[in-house]
């Protein structure tokens, strides 16, 4: 059963309207492969109600529990109204390459890397207390311009905005293998690597749905964690993507408890 199936099933289930017990969430950047997977995982998890999404124009239709918020690309400097309610408790900004799957995804806001600080400031002024910034799960497939922009993200400016919880989720990468100490062994390892005609599964990019499940679980657990700014390293994201249920790993990491050893399973060729 896919995340989309879970999301559609969740849309048919009545949603509690008690806003004091169920927090609200907002996703910016839901148009790409990773962004749409994050949106689906947020809806399927049902930890938030509603789940809002930033859009540049009105959506023709939306599933139950999903609320579009229409904004302008350059309207993040507009101050909120004095009596305006918070737009969400938790927000997620997802950076991803553009894809043209359908017209609805084209309507979703696609934040540019240089808009991170203005967008985060806009979210903070509108009452967002927890923010998760998600980098692409497969950076090797990104256009050069997007890679350059992501390399220059103004994370320090975002950290200074005063979010109660702030997490930067890095691109997933497996733990690097230890290099042999003897030069002869290193030479043998290099020769063997050139003879391999297939790429090990542990060296392949993880699926967007796996990263999205980790991100959704992280957003759900973040509100009950200690305040502060955190960085989810590439190895942690990769390790979570190998698990059927990333929740225990997420809880242990947020609580600063000892994590399972971040090592790759035996490779099969």
Account of the protein in words:
This protein is α/β, with parallel strands linked by helices and 269 residues long. It has one domain (3-254): Rossmann fold, CATH 3.40.50.720. The protein contains ten helices and seven strands. A seven-stranded parallel sheet has the order 3-2-1-4-5-6-7, sandwiched between helices. Helix 2 links the parallel strand 1 and strand 2 (51-55). Helix 8 crosses helix 9 and helix 8 (208-222) packs across helix 10.
Taking pLDDT < 50 over at least 5 consecutive residues as the criterion, the unreliable ranges are 1-19, 195-202, 263-269
What oligomeric state best describes the polypeptide chains here?
A: single chain
- The total number of structural domains is 1
- What is the H level of CATH, i.e. the homologous superfamily? NAD(P)-binding Rossmann-like Domain
In CATH terms, what is the architecture?
A: 3-Layer(aba) Sandwich
| Helix-strand string | HEHEEEHHEHHEHHEHH
Molecular shape: globular
> How many β-strand runs?
7
Number of helices: 10
What fraction of residues sit in β-strands? 5-15%
Short description:
35% of the residues lie in helices and 13% in strands. It is α/β, with parallel strands linked by helices.
Jot down its keywords.
269 residues; alpha/beta; Rossmann fold; seven-stranded parallel beta sheet; 10 helices; 7 strands; 35% helix; 13% strand; disordered C terminus
Q: What is the topology?
A:
Layout: H1 3-12, E1 25-28, H2 33-45, E2 51-55, E3 66-70, E4 90-94, H3 103-107, H4 116-125, E5 130-134, H5 144-151, H6 155-159, E6 165-169, H7 183-195, H8 208-222, E7 228-232, H9 234-241, H10 247-254
Parallel strand pairs: 1-2, 1-4, 2-3, 4-5, 5-6, 6-7
Helix pairs in contact: 1-2, 2-8, 8-9, 8-10
